[in-house]
Amino acid sequence: MTTTSTPQPNLPTSATEATGAAPRLRLRSLDVFRGITVLAMILVNNPGSWGKIYAPLRHAAWHGCTPTDLVFPFFLFIVGVSIAYAFSGAKQIPESHTKTIGRIIRRGLTLFALGMFLALFPKFDFETVRIPGVLQRIGVVFILAAIIFLKTEKRTQIMIIAFLLIGYWVVMMFVPVPGIGVSNLLPTTNLAAWLDNTLLPGHLWKSTKVWDPEGILSTLPAVATALTGVLAGQWLKKKDDMGNKIAWLMVWGVICTCLGLVWDLHFPINKSLWTSSYVLYTSGLAMLGLGLCYWVIDVKGYQRFTTPFLVYGVNAITVFFLSGLIPRIMGMIKVDTPAGEVDSKTYLYETFYTSSFSPYNASLAWALTWIFFWMVILWIMYKKNIIIKV
């Protein structure tokens, strides 16, 4: 990871690095939208008690979609938009592609390695470590989506999205599951679960042990999510009337959302399986969200309220990684209490939160504290123009 005082795209290699061209201004609305998404990630990932969470802050039990289920696909959509902005210069210079692809792969593998470090820390038990994960999926999706953007045109990208979504639907709904029989979408007996358990036995999500929400097969439609962002990014970069760009982005957002809801009738919206209907539904909502941010922030110029989200957006991976690391460190620090030894997180939570709030509000208050804690740190980094790039 490197630190820079010059604003650059947060995930992909910048066009400046690839081509030596003059730096381009960041799209403020994209940074803000990314910041809102990462802030939401921290909110839902850090409750005071996992048993006391308000329903909108929980993932759907299986089929269906809660506000929490929008967070990860929104981030992958944003990765796609960022790719379109960061690599458009390099795309026009074929002789730079080999070098650019090398940087893409290096950055994707760095994200994967950061995810593996979080999975291993602090025990570093390689025999049971979970190999899939959020950062791991982001790394893999980034590599594939960035290379596809670099080497193909929009028509081909649309065809790839269609192939991934339709192909995944066919595989999941019609291919028999070895050792099980007829295809199904049940948690432990669907084809994606079978593949995870076959290729990564003992290295899956500890809550299930036999399948993983960031598993192997479901990563393919996740690539389609990023590619919808790539298409949206290319559309926003067009030299066209801003109102026209926003209008069509909104139109396609509505179309994709509706198509997802219709497909849900046969291939249910499901975050854990990352179903094709889920891709269309969440990508459509992401288009609507980005279109709204773009209109309010970059077109109408209402920017004062955006700084709290902007500070999250420009250092998104940094805060996501550290917000996962610090609780693990807190779990290693023990505090003696009259009831016995507890970790520092439990001590702080029970001392200052559960005694002051109702159980659900205490859990929410703890998560909000994390948000404000990181906001202070990120605000200082932003004021000093410190952006840590992977």
Automatic annotation (TrEMBL):
Q: Where is the Heparan-alpha-glucosaminide N-acetyltransferase catalytic domain?
A: 26-239
A Pfam family per the record: HGSNAT_cat
The molecular function terms of the Gene Ontology recorded here are: acyltransferase activity
Which keywords are on file for this protein?
Answer: Acyltransferase, Membrane, Transferase, Transmembrane, Transmembrane helix
Transmembrane residue ranges: 32-50, 70-88, 104-122, 134-151, 158-177, 215-236, 248-266, 278-297, 309-330, 363-382
What InterPro entries does the entry give?
Answer: HGSNAT_cat
What this protein is called in its record is Acyltransferase family protein
